[in-house]
Amino acid sequence: MNIETFRLECLSFRSVTEGFPFDGETLVFKVQGKVFAAVSLRRPDVVALKCAPTLTEQLRERYHGVGEAEHWGKTRWNHVRMHSDVPDDVFLFLIRHAYAETLLAMPKKAQVAFFAQRAEGAFLYEHLHTTDTLMHYPFALHEQSSPYPLILATADLQRAGHGGAGTHWEAENGKNLLLAYRLRLNGVPARDAFALNQATALSLRQAVAYFLPAAMHEALTLKWPNDVYYENEKLAGMLVNTQMTSTLITSATVGIGLNVNQCVFRSDAPNPTSLRLILGYDLPRFLLLERFVDVLRQNMQRLAQGEAETLRREYAAVLYRRTGFHPYKDATGRFRARIANVLPTGELQLTDENGQKRTYAFKEVTFL
């Protein structure tokens, strides 16, 4: 890490400005008028970065190159030294974290407005405070007048949010990322319907991973067909409905629930978790959303350009239980098996301990 790399990383985020508001030697980086990073030209190897209080002490205990940022605040700011024991990937994570921490301090209304700026001229967007379910959002009505291929809606609370096969999705008011969208597609063959599902799940995982330290990425997986897991707990789920002709996918309607800042889950869901429980601090929901939309548009473009097989391989590489034998249950009872394949049609293929292959459609097998 050097000062120029640091500067370019700070400026890579949307709406960031740089300047010398305090004196002629302290270069300061702001988002929405709030400082998230700074470096003195007298000591260009040491930068000040905003940080969540719960993370501050952990970093100082782990790295000699992280210490208290004099004149910035003991609990919410760190000094991070370049050319120290702080790896470059951790340094980059801390810059992203400082930017996110600053946006998190904005009022919710301002955070929504900040994301809406990203939507201008690119896609249609509406935020709802409360709705029954975002999957009932009137996409078809908006499609008639919208020039954009993407129509996106978010909500603070869904009174009747649900997951796959009618299951209930628990989400505390204003704590999580609840969204639904319809995306018009051009040139995606109908045979790649499940690849679209895989690309969507990959996009959500990639968006979440961007805000996690690299050491935690291995634990972030995709449980067939499209849940996002951290270790053995469910972080996000989605519903993907495709609209198609006999040969082409014309559009997809997708609903997503990502547990972000919720700390207590009261439903009978067996294994929910949230980013707050994993990390120990809150994240800005709409910054996660912005990252997801950007990655999603890239992956949908890749799918339209014929990269379905590449996306399938990327999905397989981050699949939950992708190695080893694990317990499952089907209509015949319990058994142990390893994942052999996820077929292009979407079925899960397992090989049990007797070497027998078993193929399942969604809901035909249970992960124990």
Describe this structure in words.
This protein is α+β, with helices and mostly antiparallel strands and about 375 residues long. Helix content is about 30%, strand content about 35%. A 7-stranded mixed beta sheet has the order 7-8-9-13-12-11-10. Strand 14 and strand 15 form a beta hairpin. Helix 4 packs parallel to helix 8 and helix 6 packs across helix 9. The longest helix has 20 residues. It is globular.
Walk me through the topology.
Blueprint: H1 3-11, E1 16-19, E2 26-31, E3 34-40, E4 46-50, H2 53-62, E5 66-69, E6 73-81, H3 88-104, H4 108-119, E7 124-131, H5 139-143, E8 150-158, E9 177-189, H6 193-209, E10 220-223, E11 227-230, E12 233-244, E13 248-258, H7 275-279, H8 285-304, H9 308-317, E14 326-330, E15 333-342, E16 348-352, E17 357-360, E18 366-367
Parallel strand pairs: 7-8
Antiparallel strand pairs: 1-2, 2-3, 3-4, 4-6, 5-6, 8-9, 9-13, 10-11, 11-12, 12-13, 14-15, 14-18, 15-16, 16-17
Helix pairs in contact: 4-8, 6-8, 6-9
